[in-house]
Design brief:
76 residues; mainly alpha; 2 helices
């Protein structure tokens, strides 16, 4: 994976996290599980799942990249 690809993935992850934080900030004094706007709650929960999946994908790619670097015996 190229550096540009990693940068694109990292930017996407940061965007997901920022949007999730913004949506959660819409309920500053209300617990998320007590939200009465079900559409908003569904959106935030779906976004949280997307952030988690994307983060797991980043971890898997990083693990493969580090493994390939360690496996080829070369320093990059």
């Amino acid at each position: 994976m190229t550096l540009a690809t990693w940068e694109a993935i990292a930017r996407r992850q940061a965007w997901y996290v920022i949007i999730l934080e913004q949506k959660l900030a819409e309920w500053p004094k209300e617990r998320t599980d007590a939200c009465t706007d079900l559409e908003k709650l569904r959106y935030v929960l779906a976004l949280a799942r997307r952030v988690e999946r994307h983060e797991q994908l980043m971890i898997r790619h990083l693990s493969k990249g580090v493994g390939s670097l360690a496996g080829d015996g070369k320093q990059h």
